[in-house]
Amino acid sequence: MKLTPFNNIHESLGAKMAEFAGYNMPISYTGIKDEHEAVRKQMGMFDVSHMGEFILKGEHALDLIQRVTSNDAAKLTKGKAQYSCFPNGKGGIVDDLLVYCVEENKVYMLVVNASNIEKDWQWISEHNTKDVEMHNVSEKTALLAVQGPKAVQTIQKLTDMDVTNLDYYTFDKGTFCGVENVLISATGYTGSGGVEIYFDSNEADCKKIWDAIMEAGAEYGIKPAGLAARDTLRLEMGFALYGNDIDDTTNSIEAGLGWITKFTKDFTDKELLEKVKAEKPSRRLVGFEMIDRGIPRQHYKINDAEGNEIGEVTSGTQSPSLGKAIGMGYVKKGHGASGNEIFISVRDKNLKAQIVKVPFYKED
Q1: Using one digit for the tens of pLDDT, what is the confidence trace for 250-262?
Q2: For 126-161, what is each residue's pLDDT tens digit?
Q3: Are the beta carbons of 293 and 310 closer than 8 angstroms?
Q4: Domains plus CATH for the chain?
Q5: Which residues contact 176 (CB under 8 A, 6 or more apart)?
Q6: Residue 71 — φ and ψ, nearest 5°?
Q7: Is 270 exposed, middle or buried (0-12, 13-18, 19+ CB in 10 A)?
C-alpha cells in the first residue's frame, strides 16, 4: 500500500485510516459530521496527494488534449483551468479530470483520479501520435485541498501571491510558506470555496506547509478532514464521483455533463455523443431526497409507484447539512422530472423519495 507524504501526520493525529485507490488514506479524524460542518462553516484541510498529475509539453500538447478530452481546452489561457472528461471511444468515460494551462499552447497539467492513474496514462499515451512530451509526476506531487469560507484568507497569510482575488477555476504559481514553485488554484470538490495547493512531495516541505496552514487557520477553527467528509460534501453539491455516478458505461450527456462536452471541436466519441444529445439519452442522472426514513446506497434499485424498476442509485448518504437522506442515480427517460415521486428499494421495502434539482445544499 502506498503512503502519502503526510501519512505520519495523519497517524499522529489518530486518524481512522483505510486503503483507497492503493493508498493508506485518512477516512476521518474527529468524525464525519464534525469535519463536514467545519468545511461548511469555517474551514477544513484534506490530504489528496493520492490524485494523479501529468505534465504535457510541446507544440502539439494542446492538440493531444483536444483529441482526448470532451471540453474545449483551446479556450484556456495561462493561469486558467477547466473540468473535463476522457470519452472512452464507446460512449463511456475513462475518467473525469482537471486541465490546467501552465503556458498557453505549450505546457499543461492534467489532474486525474487516483484509481485511474495508470489507465489514464495509457489512454493518453495511445493517442500521443505526435511525440508530445509527457511526464507522470503523480508520485512527486503533494496536494492539499483547503476548503471552506475561511480558507482563502488563511492561505493569503502565507504567500505573496494574490490568492484573495483568484477567480473560480484560475490559479497562480509562486512561493508559499517559503517553498518555491507552488501552484495554488481556486478549485475544490466541496462547494464551500477554498483552494487546492500543489507542491513537491519532499517530506520536509510537506510538514512545513501542513503545520503552517494549521497554525494560520487556528483562529478560524481549521480541522483536518478525511475522505468520508469529502464524499458527503461533494454529494450535497451533486458533484459526480468516478466509479459511482460516472464510469466506463456512462456517457457525459446522460450524466448531466453536457456543459463539458463541446461539439465545436473534434474529439473521441464526438459523433456518438452528438447522436445521444439529438435523440435524447435513454436515462438521466438525477438527484433525489428521501421522504420515508432510510439511507439510499449504491446499487439500490429505483422503482416507480407500481413497483416497476426504472433505475439504480449511484450515490447516497445522510446529509449532515440538511439533516435528511439524499442520493443520486440513473432513471429511465420519462421518469426524471424534478418533483417526480420515486421509490428506493431498501431491504425489500419501497421507500418514498422525490426527484429534486441539484445542488442539494445551497449557501445562505
Answers
A1: 999 999 999 999 9
A2: 999 999 999 999 999 999 999 999 999 999 999 999
A3: no
A4: 2-49+139-236 (3.30.1360.120), 53-136 (3.30.70.1400), 282-356 (2.40.30.110)
A5: 155, 158, 159, 161, 182, 184, 197, 199, 209
A6: -80, 170
A7: middle
